[in-house]
Write a structure and sequence with these properties.
Rossmann fold, about 30% helix, six-stranded mixed sheet, about 260 residues, globular, 2 domains, four-stranded parallel sheet, Aminopeptidase, about 20% strand, alpha/beta, single chain
Length: about 260
């Protein structure tokens, strides 16, 4: 499926530079170091990006709570586009690549005894590009962005995922709806079940629209088998009812996270 990978980082981003520097020590990877930020597609040269099958954005992550995180997510905007991209548009991504990358990131963080929360994030922010892509990030303060051990673990994760990526016909491919920005319920599914998750539509962008679901399905590289619901993470009864009504329009089964076998 994917043979040519491009790793993109901003020259102004200490975490991104530390990740790409560590990765360069492993061998000859294709890097694209951008002068400005990587959230706005106008800062990127589409001719460079379009030569590749899959793009990995290596980046810092910021959060108000300043938690120490290693995170993975697809880019895109379900509603407003405050940080790059376009309103209501998300990038193409791969549920299989995200799953395998998340598994390896979790193992590497444990192996190197890193005191970080490893988490998926919901689909958010730009850029909007025409190639399958994902973000892998170190958060959330200057101290973590300069942490060479964390950067090494992320670089090793990128290397291992690229080298060992496999198309797995046995995984169920899912888009996910509900829950928080950090996807605690979906993390367990991605790690401990046969389900591979691509885009996540969080509770804070609800009420759901048919267009959101269509966009998530259309922008998943693999054929989507399932719509996964964090039912407890959909807080309003009106939002729950709307989710039920909208999902009836799609010829796909839906499951709550509690219904997924997690003995994988």
């Amino acid at each position: 499926m994917f043979k040519n990978f491009l790793i993109v980082a901003s020259k102004k981003d200490k975490a991104g530079i530390n990740i790409t520097t560590a990765l360069s020590q492993y061998g000859n990877y294709n890097f694209y170091l951008v002068d400005n930020d990587i959230l706005h597609e106008e800062n990127l040269n589409p001719e460079k990006i379009n030569k590749y099958d899959f793009v990995i954005f290596a980046s810092k992550h910021k959060s108000e709570k300043k938690q120490k995180t290693l995170s993975i997510h697809a880019p895109g905007n379900w509603a407003d586009a405050l940080y790059g991209g376009k309103p209501g548009k998300v990038c193409m991504t791969s549920a299989l690549f995200l799953k395998q990358c998340f598994e390896k990131l979790t193992k590497n963080a444990e192996h190197y005894k890193l005191d970080y929360d490893v988490t998926m994030e919901c689909t958010h922010h730009g850029p909007l590009i025409n190639k399958p892509c994902m973000f892998i990030e170190i958060g959330s303060t200057e101290q973590e962005w300069n942490d060479r051990r964390a950067a090494f673990a992320v670089a090793k994760t990128i290397k291992e995922t690229i080298e060992n990526f496999k198309e797995n016909p046995y995984n169920e491919i899912a888009i996910a709806i509900g829950g928080l920005h950090y996807c605690q319920s979906f993390n367990k599914i991605q790690l401990k079940s046969n389900v591979a998750i691509s885009h996540v539509i969080p509770n804070y962008v609800l009420p759901l629209t048919k267009e959101m679901v269509e966009e998530a399905i259309k922008k998943t590289c693999e054929e989507v088998d399932l719509i996964l619901l964090d039912w407890k993470g959909i807080k309003k009864s009106s939002d729950r009812q709307l989710v039920k009504d909208i999902l009836k329009k799609f010829n796909l089964p839906s499951k709550r996270t509690s219904q997924v076998n997690k003995e994988y």
